[in-house]
Amino acid sequence: MRRYELALVASAEIPEPEHDKLVTAYEELIAERGGIVHKVDRWGRRKLAYPIRKLTEGNYTFILFDAEPDVERELLRRLRLSDKFLRFMVVRADDERIPTDEEKEALAQARAEILRKAEERAQREAEEALRAERGESAGEDESSGEAEAAGEAPEAVVEDAPAAAETAGSDDEPSAAEPAPEPAPVEATDEEETP
Fold first, then answer.
1. Are 45 and 14 in contact (CB under 8 A)?
2. How does pLDDT run across 129-140, given as a tens digit for each residue?
3. End-to-end distance of the chain based on CA atoms, in angstroms?
4. What's the burial of 96, exposed, middle or buried (CB within 10 Å: 0-12/13-18/19+)?
5. Cα(180)–Cα(146) distance, rounded to whole angstroms?
6. Order of strands across the sheet with 55-67?
7. At 37, phi and psi to the nearest 5?
8. What's this model's pTM, rounded to 2 decimal places?
9. Domains within the chain, CATH numbers bracketed
10. What DSSP line would sit under 28-42, residue for residue?
11. Cβ(31)–Cβ(37) under 8 Å?
């Protein structure tokens, strides 16, 4: 068996739970083919160095595993068929050490925390969207409903004072609200004539 590290950059548009299922599927593929997954390191959303498919963020995951070369080939085959990942790479990692149990536990806790935060963010966004929807429709109904309930006609539009002053004055004399026209600029000419 050889030690490999799989680097995955998934689209940031994929929700966290779905991304977690994709990563788990690749972990299970490694395990069912006789490999051993040592570490799954979730970096989460990060800014990409350059846009890929018009996206500027990606969801980074690294998997350290031991497996036979045919497992690595199958992983690459499936990753090429998937459109969920922007970039991926499998490298030999013979010098990588296997994480300790404490490090594995810390990684599992970090993974659970990322999923919890993603769920909270999704709930918060859903609540904000619901509030915004209620706020827009409630604001429009209240303003028109109050005027109708009071039996009042809609308010008349009041003209601006400068506009009213312009219409009040005569056309010959400039009014106080209307500035006097500026004189046209004079072009400089040479006074001397050449013989």
1. no
2. 888 888 765 444
3. 104
4. middle
5. 46
6. 36-52, 55-67, 2-11, 85-92
7. -90, 120
8. 0.54
9. 2-119 (3.30.70.60)
10. HHHHHTT-EEEEEEE
11. yes
